[in-house]
Model the fold of this input.
Amino acid sequence: MIEERNGFECIDNDCMQCSKSLGNRKYLFIQAVWLDGENDYCVVSDIEDLTTMSLEDIESAITGYYDDIEAMEKSYDLPLGQLDSVIAECNFEGRPFCDWEHQSEVVTWNRAEEIIQKFIDTDGEMFLSR
Done:
C-alpha cells in the first residue's frame, strides 16, 4: 500500500496513481500502467502544466470522461477554474502510450509499488533527476 507523503496523494489504488500539486497550475503524476501479460507493468510519470492548455486542449483532455466542460462542472458542482486537478488527471491518463516524460522498464506489480513509493519518498527526484 502506497504511503502518502511530501504532498503526494494516492488518487487511484487500482493503478497506484498519485499526484502532487506543484503550484501555478502544474501537477506531478505517477502511476503503474498494466501491459499485456499477467504481471507486467510500467511505471510512468510526468508533469501536467495547465498553463499551456487552451480551452480546446481542455475539452480534448476531458472528452473520455465527460461530454463537455459544462458536464464536468455540473459533476463536481464547481466552475472550470476550480477543476485544475481533474483536468490534469484526465490529461495525464489520456496520453498516448509511451508519451510520458519518464517511464520504467517492465516490472512486476510489487516492483512498481516500490518504484512509486521511492518516487514519493524522494519527492519526485528519482525520475526527475534523469
In short: The chain is about 35% helix and 25% strand. The helical segments are 55-62, 69-76, 84-93, 109-121, 125-128. The radius of gyration is 15 Å. The longest helix spans residues 109-121.
